[in-house]
Amino acid sequence: MYALKRFALAASVAGMLVAAAANADEVSDDGLDHEPACPYGYYDFAPYDCAPYGYYGSEWFDGGIFIGTGPWFHGPRHFRGHVDNHFDVHHGYGGSTPHHGDSPDPSKSVDHIDHFRGNEMRDGVGHASGGGHEGGGHAGGGGGHAGGGGGHR
After folding, report:
1. Which end of the chain lies in a sparser environment, N or C, as judged by fewer CB atoms within 10 Å?
2. Residue-wise over 9-39: b if at least 16 C-beta within 10 A, else e?
3. What distance in Å separates the CA atoms of residue 29 and residue 21, rounded to the nearest whole number?
4. Is the full-model pTM beyond 0.85?
5. What is the torsional sign of CA 32, 35, 41, 44?
6. Are 52 and 87 in contact (CB under 8 A)?
7. How far apart are CA 67 and CA 59, in angstroms?
8. How far is the C-alpha of 64 from the C-alpha of 83, rounded, in Å?
9. What is the pLDDT of residue 126?
10. Measured distance between the N- and C-terminal CA atoms of the chain, rounded to whole angstroms
11. Which candidate, 2, 99, 15, places its Cα nearest to that of 49?
């Protein structure tokens, strides 16, 4: 009888471990398993909707490819990049945004965003701070002009 109880306990613990491992494969509870395909990047909060052109500064792009945010962040460990939170839905933005899978507008360069006015720094995993000066960054190229990357990778 004692051996049967120990076996039942071991089986239930094993079942919990298998269930936990299966849940670890899920990145988030929003139903997205893969990094969202958005032409100008995606917001760093669920449901990871596509961000509009001008939300992220050019330092968020490396060779025209978005370095990601949230669970799919691919940037340097201590990355900090500019965003213009006027384009953030949490700050009242209600304008148009691209949809997952849309292609970028060829006339809108992500390596140099004309008239970019970053007013907040973000770290790629959802943390924000002030620091809204123009230029600067830690990933990508560009110069020291308004919105340019200017940093190193």
Report:
1. N
2. eeeeeeeeeeeeeeeeeeeeeeebeebbebb
3. 15
4. no
5. positive
6. yes
7. 9
8. 16
9. 84
10. 63
11. 99
Cβ 26 vs Cβ 44: under 8 Å: no
Q: What is the DSSP string of the chain?
A: -HHHHHHHHHHHHHHHHHHHHHHHT---TTS--S----BTBB-SSTT-PBPPTTSB-GGGEETTEE---GGG--S-TT--EEE-GGG-GGGT--S----TTPPPPTT--SSS-TT----EEE-SSS-EE----SS--SSS---SSTT------
What is the per-residue pLDDT for 113?
86
Q: In this structure, what are the phi and psi dihedrals at residue 8, rounded to the nearest 5 degrees?
A: -65, -40
The type of residue at 98 is: P
Which two tokens mark 100?
């997952």
Q: Rounded to an integer, what is the distance from CA 149 to the centroid of its chain?
A: 17
How many other C-beta atoms are found inside a 10 Å radius of the C-beta of residue 43? Answer: 24
Tens digits of per-residue pLDDT, 19-41?
Answer: 443 333 344 445 568 999 999 99
* Burial label, 60 (beta-carbon count in 10 A; 0-12, 13-18, 19+): buried
